[in-house]
Amino acid sequence: MQKEAAIREPLILGHKTYHDITEDVCRPIEDKAPKMWYILFGIALVIGLYGVGAICYLLGTGVGVWGLNKTIGWAWDITNFVWWVGIGHAGTLISAVLLLFRQKWRMAINRSAEAMTIFAVFMAGTFPLIHMGRLWVGYWTLPLPNQFGSLWVNFNSPLLWDVFAISTYLSVSLVFWYIGLIPDFATIRDRAKKPIAKRMYSILSFGWSGRAKHWNRFELVSLVLAGLATPLVFSVHSIVSFDFATSVIPGWHTTIFPPYFVAGAVFSGFAMVQTLLLIMRKAMNLEAYIHTKHVEYMNIVIMVTGSIVGTAYITELFISWYSGVEYEAYAFLNRATGPYWWAYWSMMTCNVISPQLMWIRKLRRSLLFTFFISIVVNIGMWFERYVIIVTSLHRDYLPAAWSMHFPSHIDIAVYIGTIGLFFVFFLLFARFFPVLALNEVKTILKGSGQSYKESPDYHEHH
Amino acid sequence: MGLTRKYWKGIEELKETPEFIKHKEQEFPSQQTIEQFLADENLAETSTARRDFLKFLGFSVAAATLAACEAPVTKAVPYVVKPENVTPGMPTWYASTYYDGNSYASILVKTREGRPIFIKGNHEYGFTKGGTNPQIVASVLGLYDRERLTGPKANKKDVSWSSVDKEISSAIKSAKKVTLLSNTVISPSMKRAIAEMTTALNGEGGSKFEFVQYDAVSYSAIREANLKNFGAEIIPGYDFSKAKTIVSLDADFLSSWLLPTEFAVQYGQTRNPEGNMSKHFQFESVMTVTGSNADYRGMAKPSELAGILAFLINGLGGNAGIPVAVPASSKLAAEEALKSLKKTGKDSLVVCGSNNVGLQILTNKLNDRLKSYGNTIDLTNTIELFYGNDKKVQKFVKDVVSGKGPDVLLMLGVNPVYTLPNGDDFGKALSKITTVSFASHEDETASLCKYICPDHHALEAWNDYQAKKGQYAIAQPTIRPLHDTASALESLLVWGGKAKRGGKDSAVAYDYIASTFKLNAPTGDFAFTTHNSCMDVTLAPATLIFTDATASNLPKASDLEVSLYQKAGIGTGLHANNPWLQELPDPITKVTWDNYITMNPVTMEKDGYVTTYDQEHGLNTATVTVNGKTVTLPVYPMPGQAIGTIGIALGYGRGANGEKIGKAAYQTKEYGGHDLGENGKPKTIGANVFSFASTVNGNYEYSNSAKIAKAEGVYPIAATQIHHTVMGRHSIVRETTLDIFANRDKEAYNPAHKLEKLNQEGHHEERPVSEFDLWDAHPVEKIGHRWGMTIDLSSCIGCGTCLVACQAENNVPVVGKDEVRRGREMHWLRIDRYFSTEEEAAVGTKKDKDNFSYDKAEHAAENPKVVHMPMLCHHCNHAPCETVCPVAATTHSNEGLNQMAYNRCIGTRYCANNCPYKVRRFNWFNYPSYKKFVEVNPAQDDLGRMVLNPDVTVRTRGVMEKCSLCVQRIQATKLVAKKEARVVADGEFATACSDACPTNAIIVGDWNDIKSNIRKSSEDKRAYQALEEVGVKPNIWYKVKVRNEDNNLLDKLQVAEAKVEHKKSHH
Predict the structure, then answer these.
(1) How many CB atoms lie within 10 A of CB B77?
(2) Cα within 13 Å of Cα(B561), Cβ side
(3) Architecture of B224-383 per CATH?
């Protein structure tokens, strides 16, 4: 049993017992879904199917249904890809990095954050697939042995690195998430009364019996996976940033990209976690487990990463001028004052100014304000990718080739559709999976629970 | 299965026991029917081994899958007997001649397996010396137009030639008056046939038959002026190559005026700054291709040209007889022109594009003062084109309209209902006449005719031409007629009773042409003529003497004057159904698929028009009223347009009543299909402004006074370039003056881009970019071939011929207006056009580096200088596209080519994004089959597909494509050399673009051949590589644009300041 300072705010509010935790987490799974769930699921499904329809039309007709052109070969597609990958960053950071740093508060949020990660990476993965002119030969990006002799993939291409990076990240995140779910599935299995549910959860729980040996292995695997996943947190977005950094296009060709992208990804990932959890804690009565303190911690992460991102923006601006390279200087001048100035200033406002408000304690502890900012940040981060991709491409070297980008309705439909699909997955998760790592949370009940901190027994030990 | 080898099942089989033999029969139930077999009760006991079952299953699944995947059956019919001169896979070239009433050139036609697929200029024979224009190169596509008439028609119904011949012959016989309205006939045989017809019908002194020549765009004033000045109704020959000073007033001689195929080549010869570079002055209202190449360009209204001519005449000591008046916007150019004319005297040439007799007389006067007659102007070897006499035509038209026309009207090569200012009235009057058209389509005129007797396409027929007096040329067929058409010459001979119909393989026209040749040149060898396509004719020198005449009826001034001009692609509208030409960006505006009102942006801003446009933001429209007729068109911001003038291109608005002139001639909808107008007919592309021509002076003059009013609505515009200036970027376009080039060293006008580097002593040192390299050198230098190209910006005139040639050679799809608007044209080669700005001393040179305003640099100067820069794949040795492709679909060849494996491409478009030159083109849709492109892409119908080059793959949806440096031609050249066991000779290989270039601006070849032209050219003082500092090591070099002008600002920058910097670096 780990003890912590009494002056630290408790992580579990109220007078919860172990059983209460089990009840609180399992109730939504065992009870009938509320009406609201069905309504939200219905809306998400309709939007998701609309996106799937748009994707089918895209695949049937050609990439030309998007608003791309000869100068701007990527726009919303890769913007959305990077945006989703970025969002998918928080989960692994929370579960792996914070695990290694022994941040106990992560236990309340890691399950949902990891689920969010996986679904976001699914959505992200859609875009590189559908943006291909010939999806049906997309498997050529895999280094498969083939009958064409020495025909092989091009290991110089950052797109190929992406294939490896994203697939590794997805598989490790998935395994990590699942391992964590096993004891919780077992708990649900043990409580389940309906035979089908019992059967399903018993399959999912891999025959977990809660023996000490199981727990021992569980801890070990978690630690190993955390070790494995930690470099991935940094590698995925670094590699995504290489798509741009290794190119010759002014505005893309920037050595600062890897750390800047990683910080941006954590920034947007935490914002998305905030958006989801602030709703979820209300809807699923988890206020005792996810409360102001958690939100505050996350806001601090947002503030720090937001400041890194802001510094990166300003560094880029400075270097573009300081380098004396005509194209580079113009690329950034054009970002700020060119036809896409509104995108640049939206990005600056959302990503540089808004996280700085978190210095104010009152604001960073305000749930309403946090919810608002979390949305602002994700809008800002979408614009960041749009600014990097579109405004760099639309005016590069030869002015005769300069162009503009206007999204088509298919562009919009596919993007909105992935948001819909994401929520379809997330709502299913919230309905059938334990949204809180209940067995892990139990481990901190005695150390960080409010009732224990307030008990005289607790104070005697110190 | 399982019994491929002989095994004994047991000892019984070896010993052949009776029991075994009994069962053995059951084992191979060959005598059993399937029903018996299935009815066998023992069947259930027999079992198929699991392995066998899986084999069966696997096989049937595979077979079913394969059967389902079967490719559609395409039949290839082999030659049973190999035709002479046709080797499958090898092209056959025919020397021929092109003439369509507006353009003329000696050409070579490439045929593959009997299909003409490519036209290029004949560099060896013919006075055009390889010069062509986009229309000529694209005309091969016209052969395969789906809507060409397939046989004769009478009253809109298909009929046979015999019945149509009978009816027309008898109509001619019984008629009181027969008129043949034709475009200028330059065919000696046709002239002979017409002369014979005249004699036959008119007899002695009769007037039953009349022959009227009518040109869509008239040059009548030149002949009339020469009649007054020389007593001969001639158009003299012009020699721009001899001219050291060229003054052109509204004459777009490089693209549309008179004989641009010859003039562009001549002009190109004078644009070499190493040799004797001419000085070119242009005074015009609309910026033309010619004006964009001028060393000095003055903006002048059509009515102001006379005053400028007077200034020059009087300045040279003559008396123009009219007041001198030079508008401020032309002052500098006029003064410099006068200076230059004084200096070069008889080595000068003044041309005027106006069809106003007075202006032509003034031009003659000026040329006479300069004594250019006999030197740059040839009165002997005259141009035999454009014989249309406006007065005669107008009288004839008036007669027809007022009902006093002929009883029978034969119309050959003309479309008066479309091209006459009062074409509608003319068309209405045709119903009272027995009309016969030779048109290939049911066009505006032919659809109103009683009979249509379609002439062959130019590539299907024999013809003879004499475009200049000194040369006799032959056009020979390159394919058996596709349809049941007949040579117009044959038709005339048949109706005159001189010949009988010869059917599809008729030799009538050929025999007649051969006999005409014999008649004119008894000692000439006709066979030799067909080989060379032409033969020079010796002429006795003309003895014409200049007599002065007064210039009267000069164009009248008005507040707003409209100029009607021809675009490089569409010209007079003859090829309006040709999608290659419709999609050819206008050399100056870069707009495709439309005509528009050109107006100076300075005026537009004042009058509240938008001056920028992109995919989603169109241009304001305006209504122009001329001659009481109105047209509503978008207003295009054209820098260099004279203030107080507007320009509108002729040749648009074809098929106003939905005539069947070709499906590409109409507007299409976003998802394919024609866009129908309110009348249920497809909407025309642009609007017809032939009706705006002025006739007040008795001639068709292509300028007039106009009224303009801003109209409601915004019109989407499809342009391939929406940013028009180079933003002062020095490593894209380089420009200098002749003076600097001649007197300074390379460092002044073409400095190498330098970067700082640590030298061995540890000090910073400036070294050229070429010494910096992130990568290992690509092993293309010194080993084998290394293909390269140089493009001379000084001699490139921006005409667009290369672009069409590239499109034809490489099966580049046509995508239509909507896709061009979205920035998705597929051209492998584009011509970037940059206007200078107030911030620049010359294109790409910042006036003041420290106070450079990017905002102002986005706007072209009021009368800008222009640089045309052909842009294509640079075949970089460190190609950024190659490194980023995840599947290695684009790789570098060991001959320095950046090559695309279409089959391997998965379409990520990363390569296109990473291309600094933005020359890669993505197949956004399946252009050969998607419904959106049915109307525009010739590859969508089986007839149009015949134009495709079989050596070049037609690309499918989702793959990237780009210039291959005509790799198919490289391979063919190498094969020929290999067969002959020798190396490829310099100049043996040419890309489609370099082949097509009339001014030889593009040189290609093997860079590793140290004696090659390309090597020399790339090592020239003027050679530089665009965006050299990016370090991609391109195999394409540009050569600095040299303008023969005085430019103090540029002097200051390239001479004075460059020296200061030079000194600094020595500290």
Answers:
(1) 5
(2) 25
(3) 3-Layer(aba) Sandwich (3.40)
Question: CA-CA distance, A54 to B769, in Å (whole number)?
Answer: 48
Compute the distance between CA of residue A233 and CA of residue A225 in angstroms, rounded to an integer: 12
B133 has pLDDT over 90: yes
B602–chain A Cβ distance below 8 A for any pair: no
Whether B718 contacts B820, CB under 8 Å:
yes
Is residue A215's pLDDT more than 60?
yes
Residues A118 and A173: beta-carbon distance below 8 Å: yes
For residue B834, report the phi and psi dihedrals to the nearest 5 degrees: -115, 135
Bridge partners (DSSP) of residue B701 are B694
**Class assignment of domain B153-217+388-474+482-521?**
alpha beta
Q: Do B886 and A397 touch (CB under 8 A)?
A: no
Q: Radius of gyration of chain A from Cα atoms? A: 23
Hey, which residues does B280 pair with through a beta bridge? B246
Q: Are B484 and B501 in contact (CB under 8 A)?
A: no
**Quick check: A103 and A93 in contact, CB under 8 A?**
no
The answer to whether A79 and A412 are in contact (CB under 8 A) is no
The pLDDT of A19-34, averaged and rounded, is 84
Q: For residue B30, give how far its alpha carbon lies from the nearest alpha carbon of chain A (Å).
A: 41
Q: Which CATH class is domain B735-875+963-1053?
A: alpha beta
Put simply, whether B924 touches A (Cβ < 8 Å) is yes
Question: How do residues B979-1015 score in pLDDT, each as one tens digit?
Answer: 999 999 998 999 999 999 999 999 999 999 999 999 9
Dist CA B500 CA B491 (whole Å): 9
Domain B561-715 fold is: Barwin-like endoglucanases (2.40.40)
Q: What is the 3-state secondary structure (H, E, C) of B461-517?
A: CCEEEEEECCEEEEECCCCCCCCCCCCHHHHHHHHCCCCCCCCCCCCHHHHHHHHHH
Nearest-by-Cβ selection for A248 from B721, B885, B916: B916
pLDDT, tens digit, 9 for 90 and up, residues B908-959: 999 999 999 999 999 999 999 999 999 999 999 889 999 999 999 999 999 9
Helices of type H across A135-251: 158-191, 195-204, 212-245
Q: Do A62 and B883 touch (CB under 8 A)?
A: no
What is the biggest distance separating any 2 CA atoms in chain A, rounded to whole angstroms? 78
In degrees and rounded to multiples of 5, residue B620 shows phi and psi of -70, 150
Domains and CATH numbers, chain A: 33-135+154-450 (1.20.1630.10)
Report which DSSP code applies to A330: H
Strands B408-412 and B1036-1039: unpaired
Q: What is the DSSP string of A18-68?
A: HHHHHHHHHHHHHSPPPHHHHHHHHHHHHHHHHHHHHHHHHHHH-GGGSS-
All residues at 6 or more sequence positions from B426 whose CB lies less than 8 Å from its CB, including other chains: B397, B400, B401, B416, B417, B420
Top residue of B872, B909, B1027 to mutate, by most chain A CBs within 10 Å, is B909
Contacts of B913 in chain A (CB under 8 A): 72-74, 247, 249, 393
Whether the CB-CB separation of B691 and B423 falls below 8 Å is answered with: yes
Q: What are phi and psi of B354, to 5 degrees?
A: -75, 150
**pTM of the predicted model as reported, rounded to 2 decimal places:** 0.90
Q: What is the ipTM of this complex?
A: 0.93
Domain ranges of chain B: 11-56, 153-217+388-474+482-521, 224-383, 561-715, 735-875+963-1053
DSSP A246-289: TS-STTT--TTHHHHHHHHHHHHHHHHHHHHHHHHHHHTT-TTT
> Does B498 lie at the interface with A, CB-CB under 8 angstroms?
no
CA A237 and chain centroid, separation? 11
